[in-house]
Amino acid sequence: MTPAEIAPKDRLIVALDLPSVDAAEAMVNRLGDSVTFYKIGYRLAYAGGLPLVGKLADQGKKVFLDLKLHDIGNTVAQGVDSITRLGATFLTVHAYPQTMKGAVEGRGSSNLKILAVTVLTSYNEDDLHAAGFRLGVSELVEARAQQAQVLGIDGLVSSPEEVGALRKIVGHQMSLVTPGIRPAGAASGDQKRIMTPGRAIAAGADYLVVGRPVVEATDSRAIAEAIQAEIAQALG
Ligand SMILES: O=c1ccn([C@@H]2O[C@H](COP(=O)(O)O)[C@@H](O)[C@H]2O)c(=O)[nH]1
């Protein structure tokens, strides 16, 4: 499927950052047929959430496993090989060359798509410098995107602020997935590079990841559907 063929509704990925499998399943039930794509990250994965990947896939949902792997290449390759059997659509690794190379090797010819996390959306220039990087956010995101492309990575995670530049580098060969999405007026929390759903889609993002604004809402389904409507409007 080319990015242009992705239905507006399927571009919203809801982050199930919830404390238990019961809480996650209750959220999936509340969202019903409105949401087709879910993300499982640290909180749920370490609370027994990995079997939920296959369960959601059996219900026709897609699952983004956001484990942000980073280790020596051999360990990453072996870990990713195990993960190919869980039924996820996307898996994240950090965008370090050895890590990305190992992930591509572990993925092999399976259907699992590897996304490289370029620079976390909670980081700004000061945070990067404090972590010892010489490059600024946009330079590091672009350098990592070029390396990811050469290594055969399937997609990139960045903030929507970098999507325009990334599209020029990688074209439509790689999926561009953006957290750091906030509906107008929503609290940014710890996110520092943020955009509204409509602006992120207009900038060229393929998928939007939204957690707290949906899962902490009084009416999660209404918020998810409002985001999907904004996505559809931005796509024209
Ligand atoms: O750079 C990144 C990579 C991953 N994330 C994850 O996305 C969600 C965002 O949740 P919100 O509640 O909408 O802020 C969360 O699971 C992060 O781990 C990211 O935010 N930035």
From TrEMBL:
Pfam families, per database record: OMPdecase
Pathway in which this enzyme or protein is active: Pyrimidine metabolism; UMP biosynthesis via de novo pathway; UMP from orotate: step 2/2
Residues that hold substrate according to the record: 17, 39, 66-75, 121, 182, 191, 211-212
GO molecular function, one term: orotidine-5'-phosphate decarboxylase activity
UniProt enzyme class: lyase
Keywords: Decarboxylase, Lyase, Pyrimidine biosynthesis
SUPFAM superfamilies: Ribulose-phoshate binding barrel
Domain of life: Bacteria
GO biological process: 'de novo' pyrimidine nucleobase biosynthetic process; 'de novo' UMP biosynthetic process
Record domain Orotidine 5'-phosphate decarboxylase: where: 11-227
The EC number(s) this enzyme carries: 4.1.1.23
SMART domains (UniProt xref): OMPdecase (SM00934)
Reactions mediated catalytically: orotidine 5'-phosphate + H(+) = UMP + CO2
Keyword Lyase: yes
Active site: D66 (for ompdecase activity), K68 (proton donor), K68 (for ompdecase activity), D71 (for ompdecase activity)
One Gene Ontology CC term in the entry: cytosol
InterPro entries: Aldolase_TIM, OMPdecase, OMPdecase_AS, OMPdecase_bac, OMPdeCOase_dom, RibuloseP-bd_barrel
Record-linked PANTHER family: OROTIDINE 5'-PHOSPHATE DECARBOXYLASE (PTHR32119)
Protein family per UniProt: Belongs to the OMP decarboxylase family. Type 1 subfamily.
Function: Catalyzes the decarboxylation of orotidine 5'-monophosphate (OMP) to uridine 5'-monophosphate (UMP).
Assembly information from the UniProt record: Homodimer.
Protein name: Orotidine 5'-phosphate decarboxylase
Protein's organism: Bradyrhizobium canariense
Taxonomic placement: Bacteria, Pseudomonadati, Pseudomonadota, Alphaproteobacteria, Hyphomicrobiales
